[in-house]
Every structure is written in C-alpha cells, then in structure tokens.
C-alpha cells in the first residue's frame, strides 16, 4: 500500500511538473491566437480557398497557424470552410497547420523534449501538408466530397463562435476599442475548450511515467530490433497509441515525452504527436459533420499521411545526425521547481491570463457592446464543436 501511494505521489508530481513547465507558453500561445482570431477576417479567408492550388494551400496553412490549437475547434472551423466552398485540400491543410504549426505546441515540445522535437513537429507539419495534398489528389473521392458538403449534421455540441471585430483594414481592427474585449473572449473560449484535454494529458503522462516500466515501452516499440524494422514499425504504431489514449492537441505532448523516455523511436514519437487529429472522439466528430464515408476517408488519408511524414522526418533527422540521445531523460528536469526563469515567466503570463479572464467575465459572450451591437463576430458564424 505504501508503494502504491508513493507511485501516485510520483505521478501527480510529474503531472504538476509538466503543467508548471509549460504554463506560460500556453498563455502566450493562446493570447496570440486570440488576437489573430479577433482581427483576421474569416469571410475573406473562405473566399480565398475555393481552389486547391499551391497558393490556396499556403494561405490555408498560414490561417491554420494563426488559429485555435484545439483540434476540436480546428475541426469545426475546417468544417465551416469546406461547407462554405473551400476546396478539400486547403481545408485539410488548415486542419494540419492549426494542430502542428502553432506557436504554443512548438514551445511546449522544446521545454519538455528538446529542440529536435520542436523542429520535427514544425517541419513535419509542412511535410504532412505536402503528403496529404499528394494523397488527396491521387485518391480524390468526388462523390463522397460533394455528399459531405451537403451532409445534414446531427444536432448538439458546443457552439464555437467566430469573434472578429469590425473594421475595413487590419489597422482599423487593431485600433477598435472592442478588440481588447474580443481577444479576452477568444482567449477564455480557447481555455474552456482545451483545459480538459491538457489536464488529461498531464495526468495520463504522469501516471504512465510512474506506473509503466520503461521495459514495457522498450518491448512495445521494438527498441532492440534492427532500424530497418524498428523505424517503420514505430511509425505505424505511434498513431494507433494516440487513437487508443484519446488525448488530443497539446495534451498529448506529456505522453510523447514518456514514450520517448521509454525507448520509442524519433519517428514513432512524431507519428504519435501528429495523430491528435484521428483520436476516436474526433473521428466521431467528422462523422457528424460529413457522414461515415467522408470520416472513413479522412481517417485513412490522415493515418497514411502521418506514417509517411514520420518516416521522412526520422530518416532526415537520422541522416543529419540530429536525433537526440535516448539517454537524456527529461523527467528529472520536469519536476525541478525553483525561482528560475520559468517561475518569473509563469508569474508574468499568469497575470496576463488572469487579466484576460477578468475582462471576459465583465463582457461575457452574447451580451451587447456599448453601441448595441451583438458580440457574435463577423456574420455571427457558429461552429459546432463536438466534445466527443
């Protein structure tokens, strides 16, 4: 019994350490995302994505980088883009970019796992988009896609509203007095959608770190096998573990750190990180938005894309000698607390987060501003956000 209590304490300490090390980065990333969501016109973005050429894919990717890092919210926005006329490839590129190329994810990876994983995630995000575009061009299901555009969605789910302020130009929107309020509302909405995923991710990572011996991970990921077998097997296995754990978005980074410490290959860990878009609740969300056939197509294309991208990144980083040493275990560093830069950054950005929350509480969504205009954003777009 005493040993069990000690294990639980170790798991909770690890979870708390991961939350502490990444707290300020999350506030920074969500604040930037909230600002961009408040001043970048969604309608203009939709009009620009009607074709599937390189320009449209690049624009969709940039829009994804500036959007929500919550995979559910990103799926909701992608659904709106696609059903409003955006081509399939730019729509899916937006989805990959919004969950792989966002600022806060890279910084969290840097803090918990080191710069190679940060670079692997960001460069891999570009590779994901390229591989996906090629696969969709080769397999484009015209009938399924058109049926998905017309699919009658099931009712229910969380409502995710677009919150863009009024203004003819970007400068005018930045100067709009309502921008501060919209940023606070978007920031609070982002946290409301993500905190459960983050908490689950930290707890799952902490408990697996404490209760699952490294030997189990070493056996599962074939650490003693030849690289010719280990690398592809790990790339195939990584997304399946992500699907089974149900952890999505930034919440899967702590478990990725545990998998790496346990002996998974570089490509296997990246494949796991890429796979937050095919966890079971999200697959059910695709089904609700587009129907079973389109959901199955997205799942198949995404899985193949993630495996190929992970293999490409593993081979590239291995060839360049950039794969970090497995002997470096970040777990001891994660649970180290002190009056260091992390403390002061958490203090500063914690104060920023508290201020934005306070502003949002004073100006809740759905109320009217001083001019009598409803704060429902441009066109009052509502994106159904399925919690799964």
From TrEMBL:
Keyword Cell membrane: yes
Annotated membrane topology: Multi-pass membrane protein
Any Pfam family: ArsP_1
Record bears the keyword Transmembrane: yes
Primary site of residence: membrane
Localization, UniProt: Cell membrane
Transmembrane region(s): 12-37, 87-113, 119-140, 198-216, 236-259, 266-283, 295-317, 338-358
Keyword entries, A-Z: Cell membrane, Membrane, Transmembrane, Transmembrane helix
Family annotation (InterPro entries): DUF318, UPF0718_permease
GO cellular component, one term: plasma membrane
Annotated region (Disordered), positions in chain: 369-388
Family: Belongs to the UPF0718 family.
Name recorded for this polypeptide: Permease
